[in-house]
Amino acid sequence: MKIRPKRLQAGDTVGVVAICSPLAMDTLPEKITLLEELGLNVKIGKTVGLTGKFLSGTDEERLQDLHEMIEDKEVKGIFCLRGGYGAARIADKIDYQLLTENPKIFWGFSDVTIFHNAFQKYSNIVTFHGPMLSSVVEKKLADFSKRMFHQLFTPFEIQYDEKIAPLHTIVPGIVRGELTGGNMHRLLSTMGTKFEFDAKDKIILFEDTGEPLQKIDGMLNQLRIARKLEQAAGFVIGDFAELEKGARIEDVWAIFEEYLKPLNKPAVAGFKIGHCEPNIAVPLGVDVILDADTKLLRILPGVE
Q1: CA-derived radius of gyration, the chain
Q2: With CB atoms counted within 10 Å of each terminal CB, which end of the chain scores lower, N or C?
Q3: Is 3.40.190.10 the CATH classification of the domain at 158-299?
Q4: 52-102 pLDDT, tens per residue?
Q5: CA 167 to chain centre
Q6: Where does the record place the catalytic residues (predicted)?
């Protein structure tokens, strides 16, 4: 059973960090407005505004910023400003026991998949796969996406069905298991390392962006021959954005069908989770029930 961090309350302080790619400081006020509208006080991390060739500061600066936010008793949650690249460069340097001893909300997605996987594995804590604060302006965060932040204040079960968007059953059936996963490309990058993601009896979330159909096929084939697909209990297929010219999301689903149908494990595609709007935030490391027959995903609360 993973540790669920404590829920937020109005007036709490949360930290904002840039521990992957940098973001221009002149856009920062627009990013933190959402958190302030939720009644939170915002503490800006030392990495925010730092720049390098393609990282928000040095590895040492980003690691120190993360550690300080985890250790800070005043900070009740940590929100990632942007994804991009850089998480893997400090993954092996993080003090994971520190987060176990100071459990708190950790929120982000995309490149942050590396941290989600590592925190679940070595800190034994529930994390949140949700939109980066950079999305507040870049993609004009949808009202539905904003509402998903409220799960951090009041523990409630998320019931995701076709009221949000059409879903497509790849393999029928019902399964219960722990939800894990995230960005497919980043999950594959853990293979062969101490951070290799655990698929055994898990319900795996996959999402990605900017990947051609051929590479999506290649990633699924690698997961197949690594036996990750057969080890899993079920599959939640999120959004695959920015496809190559002429490709449709149905083409992506067809590739998943080719790999997943022979396994006969419940799988549903079309969830608005990933590089999309709305971007439905979900806790990772909690039990979910995936009902592929009725196209319903029930997710237990991520906070206590």
Answers
A1: 18
A2: N
A3: no
A4: 778 999 999 999 999 999 999 999 999 999 899 999 999 999 999 999 999
A5: 20
A6: 110, 207, 275
Spot the catalytic one: 21, 56, 110, 189.
110
Question: Which segments of the chain belong to CATH 3.40.50.10740?
Answer: 13-152
Catalytic, out of 61, 178, 207, 211: 207
Q: Which two tokens stand for residue 234?
A: 């079920």
Catalytic site includes residue 185: no
* pLDDT tens figures, 203-218: 999 999 999 999 999 9
Q: Give residue 12's identity as a one-letter amino acid code.
A: D
Instruction: State the span(s) of the chain assigned CATH 3.50.30.60.
Output: 158-299
Contacts for 127 with CB less than 8 Å, ≥ 6 apart: 106, 107, 115, 116, 119, 120, 283, 284, 285
Distance CA 75, CA 95 (A): 17
Helix (H) or strand (E) holding 288: strand 287-291
The torsion angles phi and psi of 63, rounded to 5 degrees, stand at -65, -45
Angle between helices 213-225 and 249-260 (to 10 degrees): 20
- Write down how long the chain is: 304
At the topology level of CATH, where does 13-152 sit?
A: Rossmann fold (3.40.50)
Those residues whose C-beta lies under 8 Å from the C-beta of residue 47, and which sit 6 or more positions away, are 17, 18, 19, 56, 57, 61, 62, 65
pTM: 0.96
